[in-house]
């Protein structure tokens, strides 16, 4: 069985952290995604051995949303998010964070990201989402089962299909 990774996009990370005005995803014709839903999914996936991946784009965008909180003191959210990121970097959380993805941003891969974004941008895919797609493809290439956990159906459409397991040939059937 392939190892599994769950890649969190910004919208899901904001819901999970309870960022005011971003603490739920509601779309016409779709089920609402709440903090309870996200937490249950994350806990279930961790218990089954999946790794949770935080792409750099999600970390940066979520941090931006936290600093723009209106009507509520953002300090508590800033501290909680900073502490969470630091615990993740130190390996005290079952998360893979951008420090494990540095090769995705070397010169060649960064050029590939820019070209991918150029092709996808007319479809409404942002540079951040293009980088999340690149992270998903990176893990897929390393034979992980990949799920992009997102409230964005456009981004979800770029989730890589699971790689087929190649079984050895049965030599006795010749």
What do you see in this structure?
The chain is an alpha/beta fold. 47% of the residues lie in helices and 12% in strands. It contains 7 helices and 6 strands. Helix 1 (10-17) packs across helix 2 and helix 3 runs antiparallel to helix 4. The longest helix has 15 residues, at 75-89.
Quick structural overview:
The protein has 174 residues and is of the alpha/beta class. It contains seven helices and six strands, in the order βαββαβααβααβα.
First CA to last CA: what distance? 28 Å
User: Can you tell me the overall shape?
Assistant: globular
Residue-averaged pLDDT: 86
The succession of helices and strands, N to C, reads EHEEHEHHEHHEH
Assess the beta-strand content as a share of residues.
5-15%
Oligomer: single chain
Strand order of the largest sheet: 5-4-1-6
Keywords:
single chain; about 170 residues; alpha/beta; 4-stranded parallel β-sheet; two-stranded antiparallel ribbon; about 45% helix
């Amino acid at each position: 069985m392939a190892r599994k990774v769950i890649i969190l996009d910004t919208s899901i990370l904001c819901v999970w952290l309870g960022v005011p005005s971003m603490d739920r995803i509601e779309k016409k014709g779709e089920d609402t995604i709440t903090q309870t839903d996200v937490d249950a999914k994350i806990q279930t996936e961790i218990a089954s051995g999946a790794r949770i991946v935080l792409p750099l784009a999600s970390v940066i965008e979520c941090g931006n949303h936290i600093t723009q909180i209106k009507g509520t003191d953002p300090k508590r959210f800033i501290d909680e998010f900073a502490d969470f990121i630091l615990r993740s970097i130190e390996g005290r959380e079952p998360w893979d964070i951008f420090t494990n993805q540095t090769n995705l941003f070397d010169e060649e891969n960064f050029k590939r990201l820019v070209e991918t974004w150029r092709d996808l941008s007319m479809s409404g895919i942002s540079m951040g989402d293009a980088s999340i797609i690149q992270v998903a493809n990176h893990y897929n290439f390393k034979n992980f089962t990949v799920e992009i956990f997102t409230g964005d159906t456009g981004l979800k459409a770029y989730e890589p299909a699971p790689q087929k397991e190649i079984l050895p040939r049965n030599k006795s059937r010749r």
